[in-house]
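so i finally got all the pieces together for this one. its two components total, 585 residues if u count the protein bits. some of the lines might not be protein, just check the labels. i wanna see the whole assembly predicted at once instead of chain by chain like last time, that was a mess tbh
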Amino acid sequence: MAESGDTPNPTKGTEGNIPLVKAFTRFCELALLPEGSKKAKKINDAMVLVCHTKGQLFAVSNVCSHQEKFLHVGRVRNCKITCPLHGAQFDLATGKATCLPGTKPIPTYEVRVVDGWIEVCV
Amino acid sequence: MNMKINVVNGEARCPDAPSTQEIIARDKVGAPDWVCSESYQFLGNEDISTERYIDSAYAKRELGTLWKTTWQFACREEHIPAVGDYYVYDLAHYSFIVTRVSKNEIRAYYNACLHRGTKLRASGTEGCANEFRCPFHGWSWNIDGTNKNVTCDWDFPHVDRKELCLPQARVETLGGFVFVNMDDNAPSLADYIGPEAMAHISKWKLEDRYIVAHVSKVIPANWKLTMEAFMEAYHVIETHPQVAPSNGDANSQYDTYGDHVNRFISTLGVVSPHLKGRISEQDILDQFTVGDSSVLAGADRKLKQGETARQRMADMMRNMFEQATNADLSGVSDSELLDCFSYTVFPNTFLFPGISLPMVYRFRPVKGDHRKCLYEVLFLRPVPKDGTRPEPASEICLEEHQSFTEAEGMDLGFGAILDQDTENLLLEQEGLEASAKKGLTLGNYQEIRIRHFELMVDKYVNG
């Protein structure tokens, strides 16, 4: 099940005169999410799912855009996750729905590793 | 002398060229029995009616007869390794959820809710489920097919939920392939394939391979016409002139096995009889290509005095394929490494057990259009020596206008060959529709697979 989030870790930048804040939040230690595993957690009211597959980390919404059920028990294969309930499938890199009954994308989040911790920008 | 004179039907072979068996017999690492046998049978020389390719009513009859009573390759076992994994297999309007219900049991459920008929899983999809739940009203079924939920069951006192199990088609597995059949009275898969072909398939250990690439494309021609483009090497000299310098095309070997299996063996690393005397051994080596040519990168391609191109290619490929695929090929013959072995399992699957051309083809009619079919190419590589089975590759769906060379994982040279094969097909489909002649005329030997195939189509469709 999803867990509550940690304190945001903002990275500041500017674009013209508008200040931008990329708030990365610690998700979990990388060592706790080995290749082939996934983990869900609540960050800033967003349900975030991080998947470690094919040597990459992907962070997406844990909520299926089809009928709003959790995705974290779905199967990940070839960088796509399939909702176990009705079979909607999403590209982990883009969030795009790749088959029916899914038609709408799910949000994706920037993810990085800092000092052995996975951080997600929500 | 005219070779056709005084030759019994089907006995003529390419003159002044070594036979496939003679070529293979010269190899350093000898071939197994299944390679060294021959099984040709003359099956008549009448024209094949064109109605079967161009008449929508004929296609409709096929759906009610042939497709309902034959064993069809639905998916690979590696698509569904865990309990609850499923793969939706579609054939025109038919659709099945092929799922693993226990470690050693796979079932195929008709893909429709027993309430108001909604598909329980969308066509062409795969995944893992805890239950098969209809997205419309939430009726659901356990993985074993028993009913799990009828929403507001107080309103359905007339429904016996114990009886409300998902209907099943038959399932059997062979060589890592999952086959389905809608006919409860059909023979077993082993009887359907027959003892001789079963003996061949059991030697290949295709269950120890995995899908490294999977490409599909809609072809603008009838499914049978499209399949037949791949059943003979007779077309190589005209359609693929670039490979003829290193392909024994006109002297390929053709065999039939029972009702449902046929094959050809087309030797590689030897010159086409059409080009005899015009090509040197070095030329053969220079122009040799394979379906997975990435493994040949950096190879020494200069022949020594007296060395044959075929033997060099066999030696080279044994070493380089072992390295590239991390597989043990020490027991594999030169012929298996090099040559193209093309088997058809009726109605719609081709198996290529060789190493250099390690494909599976599948052809399915497109729903509602007898002039189109879906052609799939799967490349199977040996599972790495450490036994770790990589995930099966996702299907890459090409648009009709796209080249096979655009698919990720497709060798450019091989993709170009597939383009050449399929570029003929719209012309053939339209030509048959325009023709004043109502039959196809076939060669007795080189096109025996087409005749064997169409005789069986006739048997299923017309009884």
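The domain at 8-73+108-121 of chain A is CATH 2.102.10.10 (Rieske Iron-sulfur Protein).
Residues 1-8 of chain A have pLDDT under 50 and may be disordered.
anyway lmk what u think
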